[in-house]
Amino acid sequence: MRILVVEDTSDIAEAVVARLETAGHAVDWGADGSAATELLAVQTYDLIILDLNLPDEDGLSVLKGLRKRRIKTPVLVITARSAVDERIGALDLGADDYLTKPFDYRELEARARALLRRSIGLSDNLLRVGPLTIDRAGRVASIEDKPLNLTRRELTVLEILAVRPDRIVPKEELVEQLFNFDQGPNANAVEQFVARLRRKLADAPIEIRTMRGLGYQLVAT
């Protein structure tokens, strides 16, 4: 998934980005409201993690602008403000959840998973396609309870395809979900990840099909 983190405190931002990237997400970081607005103008995100206390345009203004433009991306607000009225204000403006600083990064990851899960209509962290099961919380995949030895990026590719089984996922969408702006999106790398996955799934009754000119499709055979 592609996530935007808007946080002006660099050590917190770097820790959040590192945790989310380890979980397989492509993450962009905006240090203030203006940077967030610029990123949102050119990139679609699956989740926004938004600090309220920003040095220029505050987080509430960013949130209000998002919803005014009818951007429906889930927003997880993080704030050092403890006043109940301010938290209520953020929720009423369109925030989907909030965390008060200081917070446990494991809780942030869990809340992010919950919002991402809800956005695609899942009730739990397990993706199932035929004999394939992906545990999105544990970051493991298995075929008929036998674990697959996958790299972080391979697992992410498989996860993106498994979210929409039998549907065609364009290569461009995989690129966007795998790489942030700093990493240099690379379509050739996607092809390599798919090739490795096919080798690891060779003996399983599940297949990644190439739909020429359209993208990839995950199907149980």
Can you tell me about this structure?
The protein is elongated, with a radius of gyration of 18 Å. Helices cover 42% and strands 24% of the residues. It has 2 domains: 118 residues, Rossmann fold; 95 residues, Orthogonal Bundle (Arc Repressor Mutant, subunit A). Helix 6 packs across helix 8. The longest helix has 15 residues. The protein is of the alpha/beta class and 221 residues long. The protein contains 8 helices and 12 strands. It has a 5-stranded parallel beta sheet, sandwiched between helices. Strands 6-7-8-9 form a 4-stranded antiparallel beta sheet, covered by helices on one side.
What would you say about this model in short?
The chain is of the alpha/beta class and 221 residues long.
The CATH first-level class of the largest domain comes to Alpha Beta
Structural class: alpha/beta
Report the sheet-strand fraction.
15-25%
Write down the overall mean pLDDT.
Answer: 91
Question: What is the CATH architecture assignment of the largest domain?
Answer: 3-Layer(aba) Sandwich
What's the domain count? 2
Element pattern in H and E: EHEHEHEHEHEEEEHEHHEE
What would the CATH topology of the largest domain be?
Answer: Rossmann fold
Mass-distribution shape:
elongated
The CATH homologous superfamily of the largest domain is called Response regulator
